[in-house]
Amino acid sequence: MPSNTELNSDIEMNIVDHLSELRKRLIMTAIFFIVSFIVSFIFVKDIYQFFEKDIDFVLNITSPGDTIWIYFTIAGLMAIVLTLPILCLQIWLFVKPGLTKSEQKVSLAYIPSVFLLFVIGLVFGYFIFINLILPFLISLNDGMFNELFTVDKYFKFMFRLTLPFAVLFEIPVITMFLTSIGILTPQFLRKYRKYAYFILLIVGALVTPPDVVLQIVVAVPLMLLYEVSIYLSTIIYRKKLRKQQEL
Q1: Which residues, including other chains, have CB under 8 Å from residue 231's CB and lie 6 or more apart?
Q2: What does pTM read for this prediction?
Q3: How many CB atoms lie within 10 A of CB 224?
Q4: Is 195 exposed, middle or buried (0-12, 13-18, 19+ CB in 10 A)?
Q5: Which of 90, 131, 163, 223, by CA, is between 20 and 30 Å from 30?
Q6: Which pLDDT does position 13 carry in this prediction?
């Protein structure tokens, strides 16, 4: 029978091994982020022109630092998007040894879903911003004030409105994962549906101007996402029940 000293030594070795493995995964993710940032920085003018073509006004700068700020911001955002699937993969590789074969297969399928939903959320948020929110806000001026749009304020405002959608579009994947590990059930999601709708309406109000139509336009897709989450949670939950009955 091993002594307490040997047991403590084994525990310490396991902790060190886990920390070493985590460090390795974080370093690989950081390297990919840096490479993605450098590549994005090289093509930052092309990326900027992609955003610029959707607006019909000139963006100005008020200080020399604004240019480098927008370069770093755009390159950083692109690097985050490109690094997201790599980060998910590294997390999966880190937890893989503690999963069964079936759990490994199921959890690996979440990686492309997380990336795709993040990108779709960004695209949706950008579409809402360019086609609904921005025209509405500009129309409020109606020639009352002289308009001067600066690069830093425009992009800060755009990112503040589009990035939340990228996060909110992860709701289905998060719901599926929490259902698979037993934290959520479709019954729970249905029971608290009205509260979820209320929260999504608040989110829609926070990320849009004070216009009821715009808030509804934003909130409705989020509610549909919630319904999709319930449907996917039901599928995962039924599969869990079947597996438990087979055991």
Answers
A1: none
A2: 0.79
A3: 10
A4: exposed
A5: 163
A6: 46
